[in-house]
Amino acid sequence: MDNQEIMQKVLKILGPYAKNKEALNNANESTNILKDLEVNSSRLVDIILALEDEFDIEIDDSEADKVQTVGAAIELIKNKVG
Amino acid sequence: MSQLKLKYKILLQIQKLLGNIAFFILGNLVFFYFKFIKKYKINQIKEIRNFYKNIIRKNQPLLICPNHLTMVDSALIQWALASNWFYLFRFDKFPWNIPAKENVAKSILFRIITYLTKCILIDRDGPKEHKELIVKKLAYLLNKKEPICIFIEGTRSPTGKLLEEQINYGAGQLAYDIPDTEILVIYFRGKNQTQKSDFPKKNEEFFVRYNLIKPQYQSKGFRAHKEITLQILHELKNFENEYFSFYQ
Questions:
Q1: Coil, strand, or helix at residue B186?
Q2: CATH code at A76?
Q3: Which residues of chain A lie closer than 8 angstroms to B225, CB-CB?
Q4: Is there a contact between A46 and B226 if contact means CB atoms under 8 Å apart?
Q5: Interchain CB contact of A61 with B (< 8 Å)
Q6: Which of A37, B75, B110, B125 is surrounded by the fewest CB atoms within 10 Å?
């Protein structure tokens, strides 16, 4: 699975939680999930769970903490799915 | 989860001790204000207090999870759960609270009052280390069988109905981390309360429903935190539906 494919899936997951739809449409790897997309921090857990389901991976607490940007999410997923 | 440092354990015990000393005055002032100035009325107060006493006798870790509509919800719930005399001698059973720092930071008086009424201030935009410390403090208190009041919505509801999209899984996390934790779910609202406010209206009568639940979960980690919190939300929603079918 290449970066572009992962990114599309990640953005699809982020979609319902992102308050800033314009930032979502223009998102790139450096887009910050909380600050740029204006995702409520309480929803990060839901996003992590959705990523686990979508990519059939497990993400632990310490890894979840690092998922702050779209790029960080892609990197984590790439490492997990091999 | 690593242990809370001794320094913080001592600071929490000092806070509780000072709160206990101040409670005779503070508790009675609040009671006087609610009962005689605002003329609030909780109809089933004896029934609720008996229910709470029975829970306390079991001496298990206890989370109290209410809905959130006014600035004084936690004080009203504390009043509903037990008398001032009870708290004076069992101040360990006066629930801890976790208000947002930004709500009290502006006023030194608010800071003192919240300190003396067993509040642990949380900076919702604070660093991860700050939030981890709060979780450790709460876990320590739960293990000591001191009840903790957590609003799963995190903020007062502007719509007057449960804010499902706002719920955070902190209560679920604590219930998952601390074995045998029970959760007292309370739906508490003034019969004239249509949306959020600082105080309920004068002469307000309160609709109160409550249930004690034992968390059930099949999964682990984050999923279990969510599963438990959704159980709390489910109970609150049932009570809210009852309220709206009855009063609206």
A1: strand
A2: 1.10.1200.10
A3: 45
A4: yes
A5: yes
A6: B125
Domain hosting A26: range is 3-81
**To the nearest 5 percent, what fractions of chain B are helix, strand and coil?**
55, 15, 35
Instruction: Name which of B170, B64, B165 is nearest B118 in CA terms.
Output: B64
Beta-carbon contacts of residue B147 (< 8 Å; ≥ 6 apart): B62, B63, B64, B93, B94, B95, B96, B184
Q: Chain B residues with CB inside 8 Å of A46's CB?
A: 226
CATH topology for B6-247 is Glycerol-3-phosphate (1)-acyltransferase (3.40.1130)
Average pLDDT on B139-151 reads: 97
In chain B, where are the structural domains located? Answer: 6-247
**Could you give the number of structural domains in chain A?**
1
Specify the pLDDT at position B128.
84
pLDDT per residue as tens digits for the range A45-59: 999 999 999 999 999
ipTM > 0.90, yes or no: no
Q: What is the mean pLDDT of residues B125-148?
A: 94
| Residue pair B138/B148 in contact by the 8 Å Cβ criterion | yes
pTM: 0.92
Nearest to B23 by CA among B84, B92, B104, B114: B84
The residues near B235 (Cβ < 8 Å, ≥ 6 apart) are B185, B187, B211, B213
Q: What is the DSSP string of B191-210?
A: TT--S-BSSPPTT-EEEEEE
Strands (E), B110-230: 148-149, 182-190, 205-213
